[in-house]
Amino acid sequence: xxxxxxxxxxxxxxxxxxxxxxxxxxxxxxxxxxxxxxxxxxxxxxxxxxxxxxxxxxxxxxxxxxxxxxxxxxxxxxxxxxxxxxxxxxxxxxxxxxxxxxxxxxxxxxxxxxxxxxxxxxxxxxxxxxxxxxxxxxxxxxxxxxxxxxxxxxxxxxxxxxxxxxxxxxxxxxxxxxxxxxxxxxxxxxxxxxxxxxxxxxxxxxxxxxxxxxxxxxxxxxxxxxxxxxxxxxxxxxxxxxxxxxxxxxxxxxxxxxxxxxxxxxxxxxxxxxxxxxxxxxxxxxxxxxxxxxxxxxxxxxxxxxxxxxxxxxxxxxxxxxxxxxxxxxxxxxxxxxxxxxxxxxxxxxxxxxxxxxxxxxxxxx
Length: 366
Prior knowledge:
The longest helix has 21 residues, at 130-150. It is globular and about 55 Å long. The protein has ten helices and ten strands. With 366 residues, the chain is an alpha/beta fold. Strand 8 and strand 9 (292-293) form a beta hairpin.
């Protein structure tokens, strides 16, 4: 029985369901991140945030005290609301860096959400073919990076595209019939622009392929064969969509060793309630993963398990997606074309509840 217990414990450690033994303590997470792209707007609207003791405090200070050392900000080219265009990112980058936090800029290269199901060109580039789009990507990336650098907020890392499972800037940059040519040209443009701005800024190429090692290999093999360079492999992992922690461990381990590059979980989250704060349906109504159910305690446990799994698989970071986008968020809706009245589909996934109290059990741990 003792041998059986030890064997089960070994499996739990491997996939992240238990803390790693002291012998593996060398594996650490250096990028302890939070995507707070809606926080600038929330703060301007006067939304309040409270720490575990119930004291009102700046949200970034609360997150930093809970272990966050890296902030991710998305940038859209010309969103109707202005949030989050280059000017907004430039302004908020000053706040982020003033807190002593590192900065990851997530280029969507769109006027709105870009994800595996949609990668729309920004309106200004709508008629541009692949030759012009290479220049567009280079110039936009270089200009924002150099503007950030000029004001003393050089990005520590950037993403060239967001969840680009089958390409970006569709249809020109979409991978069709396994042809990665056009996508590779766009990724090279973004990489070269970043390095021309600041050679030490790390370039992340991000997919939501944590669910499938086959899909991850197809994508990253495809761009590698076309000579694309990148510094860090980024994956999204939401357990309700991307499967078990054991599978996550295997995907991280494989892409890390196969491409010889560090890996980060660029997005993850888990619901603390199945209820809804507004008229907009929640993106996730509830979840049960690895026996963890929807609750504040479950949210903290799931996040801890994801961090443990990433750490044990040799990843270097985990980012929680939109932990500060809480409650009904009046005036800070999901639709950039209708930010004033559209609701928030993430109100049950934030780490702050609907009155702004942080989940006291949530921690980012190296």
